[in-house]
Write a structure and sequence with these properties.
With 253 residues, the chain is an alpha+beta fold. The protein has helices at residues 3-14, 23-29, 59-68, 138-142, 164-167, 174-178, 195-202, and strands at 45-50, 78-86, 92-99, 118-120, 126-128, 149-150, 157-158, 184-188, 207-208, 220-223, 238-242, 248-252.
Length: 253
C-alpha cells in the first residue's frame, strides 16, 4: 500500500462521519477536473451503438466478462432488455439498450476521487488505478449512468475502459469484436476518415446520447434510440410509464 493510500485510510479512520461524501460536495467538484495524462493526445476514442442491429444476444456481455474477469454478477457492459407498450395501440415491442461507461468529456467520476485513482487519459478514455483506489465509492455515486461498481473481489472501483489494453495492442474491445450484429463501432473521432465518423455522419439526424442535460458530454452515441430512454434511464428494475413520449410503459430486466 502506497503512502497516499495509507494517508487517506488513516484520515477515514479518524473521521468516521466522513464515510460518505455529501451530495453537495460531489456536485461542487464536478467541474474541477484534474489534468489528463497518458494516452495519445492526437486521438479521441468514442463508440457508436446501432440499436437497429442489436439483437440482445449478450455476446458483448459474455466476451467482456471473459476478457476482464469481473466477479460473477457484476458487469462492465450489459444489454438491458425492455418491453415497451404503446397505450394507444396496445402494441408491444422488445427494446435492447447496451450499457457501459460513456467515456464522458466532462466525467463526474474523476474529480470526486480523493486520491486521483480515477483519471482521464488524453485520448478521452477514463481509467482506474486499482493499486491507488481506496474503494470509497465516491465515483460510483457520482456516475449518472450506473456504469461503475465496487468490485466484490478487489474492493476497488471498476468500470468499462473500452478495453484500453486491447486498443493499445491494435485490437478491438472484446464487446466490439464479438458483436454478431455489428452494432458496436469504436474509433478515433479526431480522424475524419475513421469508420465511426462515417457512421455518425450517415446517421447524423438519428444520433442520441443518454442524459444530455447533465453536460457530461458522453462519447457513447446511440443510433435508433427512442426519446423515452434519453432522460429516463436510471438502471433500476420495474415498470415505468412515460406520458411525455407517446404514453410508453416498459419493464426492464
Amino acid at each position: 500500500m502506497d503512502l497516499s493510500r495509507r494517508q487517506f485510510l488513516g484520515k477515514a479512520a479518524i473521521s468516521a462521519g466522513a464515510a460518505v461524501m455529501p451530495l453537495a460536495d460531489v456536485e461542487a467538484a464536478v467541474n474541477d477536473q484534474p489534468a489528463r495524462r497518458g494516452g495519445d493526445p492526437g486521438k479521441r476514442y468514442g463508440m457508436a451503438i446501432d440499436l437497429r442491429r442489436c439483437i440482445g444476444c449478450q455476446a458483448c456481455t459474455v466476451s467482456c466478462s471473459i476478457e476482464n474477469q469481473p466477479p460473477v454478477g457484476q458487469f462492465r457492459t450489459i444489454v438491458h432488455q425492455y418491453e415497451v407498450k404503446d397505450n394507444d395501440s396496445e402494441d408491444t415491442a422488445a427494446v435492447m439498450l447496451p450499457r457501459l461507461c460513456n467515456q464522458c468529456d466532462n466525467p463526474p467520476c474523476v474529480p470526486v476521487c480523493p486520491v486521483q485513482a480515477t483519471w482521464q487519459r488524453k485520448d478521452g478514455i477514463v481509467v482506474v488505478d486499482n493499486e491507488q483506489c481506496v474503494g470509497c465509492g465516491y465515483c460510483v455515486q457520482a456516475c449518472p449512468y450506473d456504469a461503475r461498481f465496487i468490485n466484490h473481489d478487489t474492493q476497488v472501483a471498476d468500470e468499462c475502459n473500452f478495453c484500453v489494453h486491447r486498443l493499445e495492442a491494435g485490437l478491438l474491445p472484446a464487446c466490439v469484436e464479438s458483436c454478431v450484429g455489428g452494432a458496436r463501432i469504436i474509433g478515433d473521432l479526431n480522424d475524419p476518415d475513421s469508420h465511426i465518423n462515417q457512421v455518425l455522419r450517415e446517421n447524423y439526424d438519428d444520433i442520441k446520447v443518454l442524459k444530455p442535460e447533465l453536460n457530461t458530454r458522453p462519447h457513447v452515441f446511440y443510433i435508433g434510440m427512442t426519446d423515452a430512454f434519453i432522460e429516463r434511464i436510471q438502471g433500476e428494475s420495474g415498470l415505468w410509464f412515460d406520458s411525455e413520449h407517446g404514453g410508453v410503459m416498459g419493464a426492464v430486466s
